[in-house]
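Risk register update: the risk of archive-format incompatibility is retired. Evidence:
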Amino acid sequence: MASTIKKAILAASISLASLNTQAALTSYNANGVDLVYSSVSNVTWTKDGNLLGSMIASDGFHNVINAIITASPLITNTPNYWDNYTGVYTVTETDFGSSGQVNWYGAMAFINYLNSINYGGSNQWQLPTVIDRGADGCNYAVGGTDCGWNVVTNGNLLGNELPELYYTELGGKGSVDSNGNYQPDFGIPATSQFENTSHLYFTATEYAPGQSGAWFFSTSDGYQGFTTKLDPWQYVWAITQNPTTTVPEPENLTMLLAGLGLLGVAVRRSKQA
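Archived output:
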């Protein structure tokens, strides 16, 4: 019997190791807000992939946008064509769409608004970022660079959170693989942990050559690239670097740990017998 129990403990331990690598995303609620913690990127996401659109649908376009502009009337960025090279951009209603679409300035203003209301108990919300590798700007490839498909990710260090979520945590595929071959089953996988996801998301990272653009990520095909800051068809998905409250263990992890404890008790009893 002892041999059988020891084998069971070994199998459970192997399962635990596997579970720890797979259980990268943990859903939880903080201050009435549904959030998802990523142990891979070490950030917390909003469960709602189009939170701004949901707020607009609930409270009305003008009410929400006026509140955002009141909280964040100006956006400071690297001087560029869109702010007349002053480094300060004045936010207006035209920076937002009725279904949650934003240009880059609208996205940044919405993030500032979330921080002003301490959304979900956090005032450290931000847009995901991109690590610009190699030469400044897009080093286009089908894999292994900062631009294109199957881009390099950054682990639990800050940066590249969107491709980490898409490729590493959700197991999404690019529309082409790292050899350039077409993959028909591309796109962000369906999951109960997130809802209302959109197809194009701005990042906070300005595009170095010229500074009039910014990096974005496409969840429709896994492509990372750049566009003008005034692109009106992007969306915003907020992250915070630290969990807004104590993140609970996944239910299956808790059950496995409890099972290991019971097996340990059984081993001790068998030795005593």
